[in-house]
Amino acid sequence: MADGMARMMVGDVEVLALLDASAQGWCSAMFPDVPPDAWSAYGEYLSDDGTRIAISISSFLVRSSGKNILVDTGMGAKDRRGYPNGRLPDLLREAGVALDEIDLVLATHIHIDHVGWHTTARGDGWAPTFPRAKHVFVREEYEYWTAPDVAGRPPAPWVDDCVLPLRGCAEVDLVDGESSVTDEITLLPTPGHTPAHTSFAIMSAGESAVILGDVAHSPVQVTETGWHPVFDLNPALASASRERLMRKIEGEDTRLLAGHFPFPGFGRVVRVDGRRSWRAG
Length: 281
Prior knowledge:
Blueprint (H helix, E strand, L loop, with lengths): L4 E6 L2 E14 H4 L21 E13 L2 E5 L16 H7 L9 E3 L12 E4 L2 E4 L5 E5 H7 L11 H7 L7 E5 L4 E3 L2 E5 L8 E7 L2 E5 L8 H4 L11 H18 L2 E3 L8 E7 L2 E6 L1
Parallel strand pairs: 4-5, 5-8, 8-9, 13-14
Antiparallel strand pairs: 1-2, 2-3, 3-4, 6-7, 10-11, 11-12, 12-13, 14-15, 15-16
């Protein structure tokens, strides 16, 4: 399989992890409330000098009920200062999937690294990257980010070029709560990181998995569910969602698919020396 691509099965559902881009963040900037010495137990996830954490930016191509479903679209190619451009369309082509063969585009939430490839530059504007796809958003999330006092302002310029251009030229479906996408994929509300952040539960042929989104940015947070990154809009709610989801995943022996963990982000929540931990694989 090509570099930046990994495959797994959840029952009858095929999942391809696609590494759109990679980045590093300073621990002190991403987790400003965590003292530096607290990271000493998690050196395997840090740079050699122990000051930075590696961040994958992955999308997931899910094949369910005869549909090609893309969960999150990565960074895109918007040439934003300080952010890498992604390569998702090239990875899809390498996987044998044309852009117009994507049936559904799902978003865990509306942040810059999750909706980047919803659109591509065309002429002086932006057009849907996946021209035949239905674009699914949680209603509360969409209404928050597209409100006039949020969209296009300095904190959220990506709304202006990744989400708003879909209006009138793509099918946009706003859904609520624990809606089902297919018989095998269901929205799993995990608010806090953003107002209506959602994870996606996959259940097929007696197996299960959860596409995490930004409930956690690092395997460290599987153990330290109270550690919250600076990006969480509601830290207390995000920590509660994280703890609740990790407990659920551990109790049900569910696979975890984490787009920001070391690629490909496939693994399980297990107990090691009495502590909840991440085990890749």
